[in-house]
C-alpha cells in the first residue's frame, strides 16, 4: 500500500501545495498500483506516458505559481464512454475497435483545463447498458471487495463492481485512481458507488455537457464524478460542470462553489422518506441502513417527513422502454462506415448486417430490438407514448414532494454487490438493481450515493439522497452529514 494512493483529492491538493510531494510522485504511485492490480480489469487502456507528461506539466505550473486549476496535478481515470483526443475510446464495445477520436469531450477538456492528470480509460458495460460491468467486450471489471470467508461461497467468489461505470468504481475503491468520471442513465454512477464503498453524484440533467460522450439514451444520460469523499465529488463536479453551447441540453445556469455548501448544518431541513421505496421483501439489512440514515439526519437537526411518490412502481418499465428506444436510434450510427469495426459483405446492406452482428454484444442487441419494437408504427402509442406519459407523472410526483421537503433519502440499491455470473442470464433480475435510481433520471433530478455501512458479509452499502433540480448543494451538504455519521472508513482488504 502506498500512503499517497490513500489520500483524498482534498488532502492531496494540500500536500501538493505544501510541496510534500509532486504530482509526478503521486502519479507514479497510481501507475504502480494500476500495474499491480491489473487483475481487476478496471482499465481498458492505460496512458502512463500521457499521465507522466501531464503530471510534469502540473509540477511546472506549481513551481511557477500558476497552478490555478481546481484539480491541478491530481491523477484520475476516465470512463471509456468519454471521447479523448487520440486515445482509444471503445464504450466497452467491439464495434468501436480502434476508434481514436479526433476531439475531446467537453467534460474531459474541462478537467484537463483544471489541471487533472489522465491515468487511462476505464472499463464499463457495453454502451453503458448494464449493472455489473459484465456486458463489456473487454471482460468484466472486478470489485476489490470480497465477501467474508464464511458467507455464500466466501472470499473466493469474484464480485461485480456494479455498472455501467464498474471500472470507474473498482479503480476508485482499489486506489487505482483518485477519482473517476462516470455517466448515469439509470443508476450507473450511484449503483457502482454503493457496491464499492465510494461516493458518486449524478448531477441534474443539463449540469454537465454531454458533448463528446458516446450517447446511450440522450434524454437520461448525465456525467458525474465518482470519488472517495463527498468533498472530492464537490471539487470534481465544479471542474466538470458548466454550460456548453455545443450541447443544446446543457443549461446556462451559474455553477455554485459546491465546497461552500459543506457547512455541516442541516438544522430545520426537511427530509422526505418515500413510502413506495419500502418494497415488499426489502432486505432487512437495507431497511436497517435506511433507518440508520433517518436517525443520523434527525440527530443532526433535520425534520423527517413521510412522502408519497405514487408512480414509483412504473419507473422500471418506463425506463426500460424509453432508454432502449433512444438507444436504438443513437446506435444506428454504428454501420461499419464511420467508426471502428467493419466486416465486409457482398452488398452494402450485408456489410451493415455483418458488422452490427459481430460488433454488438447480446445486451446491446436486446435493447436495439426492444427499442425498435416500441418505436415501430403499430406499437408506438401502446408503449413509447405511454412510457412518455408515465415519465411526466413520475416527474410530477417529485415536484409535488419537493413542495414539502428539501431532500429525499432512500437506499441506493436493493442489495450489496453480487457474484460475477450470478445474475447475468436473467435480464429482469439485473434490471431490478436500478429500482431506486431510475426515477431520478426520468425526472432529470440530481442524486448522490454515499457509503453508509457494511452488510453482514462485510460488503459496502450506500444511501441515496435526491434533490431538487440544480440543487446539488443540498445533496453535498446532507451527503457529508451522512458520511460523517456513518464514519465509513473500511477499505477493501489488500488495497
Ligand atoms: N443499469 C441501467 C441500464 O442497464 C442503467 C445504466 C446506466 O445508468 N448507464 O440501463
Molecular structure report:
The protein has 495 residues and is of the alpha/beta class. The protein has one domain (2-268, 404-486): Amidase signature (AS) domain (Amidase signature (AS) enzymes). It contains 15 helices and eleven strands. α2 runs antiparallel to α3 (48-63), α9 packs across α11 and α9 (315-330) crosses α12 (380-401). Bound molecules: glutamine. Glutamine is lined by residues 128-131, 164, 184-188, 216, 323, 434. Residues 128-131, 164, 184-188, 216, 323, 434 line the site of glutamine.
* Unreliably modeled segments: none
Overall pLDDT confidence: 96
CATH top level class name: Alpha Beta
Shape summary: globular
Strand percentage? 5-15%
Tally of domains: 1
Tell me which ligands are bound: glutamine
CATH superfamily annotation:
Amidase signature (AS) domain
- What would you say the CATH architecture is? Alpha-Beta Complex
Strand runs, count: 11
CATH fold assignment: Amidase signature (AS) enzymes
> What is the rounded Rg?
21 Å
- In order across it, which strands form the biggest sheet? 4-6-5-10-11-9-7-8
Please report the distance between the alpha carbons of the first and last residues. 6 Å
Number of helices: 15
SSE order in H/E notation? HHEHEHEHEHEEHEHEHHHHEHHEEH
**What class do helices, strands and sheet pairing give?**
alpha/beta
- Main sheet summary: 8 strands, mixed
Could you write a compact summary of the structure shown?
By secondary structure, the protein is of the alpha/beta class.
What features would you highlight for this structure?
Amidase signature (AS) enzymes, three-stranded mixed β-sheet, 12% strand
Amino acid at each position: 500500500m502506498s500512503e499517497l494512493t490513500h489520500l483524498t483529492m482534498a488532502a492531496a491538493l494540500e500536500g501538493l501545495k505544501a510541496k510534500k510531494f509532486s504530482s509526478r510522485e503521486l502519479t507514479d504511485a497510481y501507475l504502480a498500483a494500476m500495474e499491480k492490480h491489473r487483475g481487476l480489469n478496471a482499465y481498458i487502456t492505460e496512458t502512463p506516458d500521457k499521465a507522466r507528461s501531464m503530471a510534469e506539466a502540473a509540477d511546472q505550473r506549481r513551481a511557477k505559481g500558476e497552478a490555478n486549476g481546481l484539480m491541478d496535478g491530481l491523477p484520475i481515470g476516465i470512463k471509456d464512454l468519454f471521447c479523448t483526443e487520440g486515445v482509444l475510446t471503445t464504450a466497452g464495445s467491439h464495434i468501436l475497435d480502434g476508434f481514436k477520436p479526433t476531439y475531446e469531450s467537453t467534460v474531459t477538456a474541462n478537467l484537463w483545463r483544471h489541471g487533472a492528470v489522465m491515468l487511462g480509460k476505464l472499463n464499463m458495460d457495453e454502451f453503458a447498458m448494464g449493472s455489473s460491468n459484465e456486458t463489456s467486450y473487454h471482460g468484466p471489471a472486478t470489485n476489490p471487495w470480497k465477501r467474508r470467508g464464511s458467507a455464500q461461497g466466501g472470499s473466493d467468489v469474484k464480485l461485480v463492481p456494479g455498472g455501467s461505470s464498474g471500472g470507474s468504481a473498482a479503480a476508485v475503491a482499489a486506489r487505482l485512481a483518485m477519482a473517476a468520471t462516470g455517466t448515469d442513465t439509470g443508476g450507473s454512477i450511484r449503483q457502482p458507488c454503493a457496491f464499492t464503498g465510494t461516493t458518486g453524484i449524478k448531477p441534474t440533467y443539463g449540469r454537465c455537457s454531454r458533448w463528446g460522450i458516446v450517447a446511450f439514451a440522450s434524454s437520461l444520460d448525465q456525467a458525474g464524478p465518482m470519488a472517495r469523499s463527498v468533498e472530492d465529488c464537490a471539487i470534481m463536479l465544479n471542474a466538470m460542470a458548466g454550460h456548453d453551447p455545443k450541447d443544446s441540453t446543457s443549461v446556462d445556469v451559474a455553477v455554485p462553489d459546491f465546497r461552500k455548501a459543506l457547512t455541516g448544518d442541516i438544522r430545520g431541513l426537511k427530509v422526505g422518506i418515500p413510502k413506495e421505496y419500502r418494497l415488499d421483501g426489502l432486505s432487512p439489512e437495507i431497511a436497517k441502513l435506511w433507518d440508520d440514515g433517518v436517525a443520523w439526519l434527525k440527530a443532526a437537526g433535520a425534520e423527517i417527513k413521510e412522502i408519497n411518490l405514487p408512480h414509483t412502481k412504473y419507473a422500471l418499465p418506463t425506463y426500460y422502454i424509453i432508454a432502449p428506444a433512444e438507444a436504438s436510434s443513437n446506435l444506428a450510427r454504428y454501420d461499419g462506415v464511420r467508426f471502428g469495426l467493419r466486416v465486409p459483405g457482398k452488398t452494402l446492406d450485408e456489410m451493415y448486417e455483418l458488422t452490427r452482428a459481430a460488433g454488438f454484444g447480446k445486451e446491446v442487441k436486446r435493447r436495439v430490438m426492444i427499442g425498435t419494437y416500441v418505436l415501430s408504427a403499430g406499437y408506438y402509442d401502446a408503449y413509447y407514448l405511454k412510457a412518455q406519459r408515465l415519465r411526466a407523472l413520475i416527474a410530477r410526483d417529485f415536484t409535488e414532494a419537493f413542495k414539502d421537503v428539501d431532500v429525499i433519502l432512500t437506499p441506493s440499491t436493493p442489495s450489496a454487490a453480487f457474484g460475477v455470473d450470478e445474475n447475468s442470464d436473467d435480464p429482469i433480475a439485473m434490471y431490478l438493481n436500478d429500482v431506486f435510481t431510475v426515477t431520478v433520471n426520468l425526472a432529470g433530478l440530481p442524486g448522490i450515493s454515499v457509503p453508509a455501512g457494511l452488510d453482514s458479509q462485510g460488503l459496502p452499502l450506500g444511501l441515496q439522497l435526491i434533490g431538487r433540480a440544480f440543487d446539488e448543494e443540498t445533496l453535498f451538504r446532507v451527503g457529508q452529514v451522512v458520511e460523517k455519521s456513518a464514519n465509513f472508513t473500511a477499505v477493501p482488504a489488500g488495497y
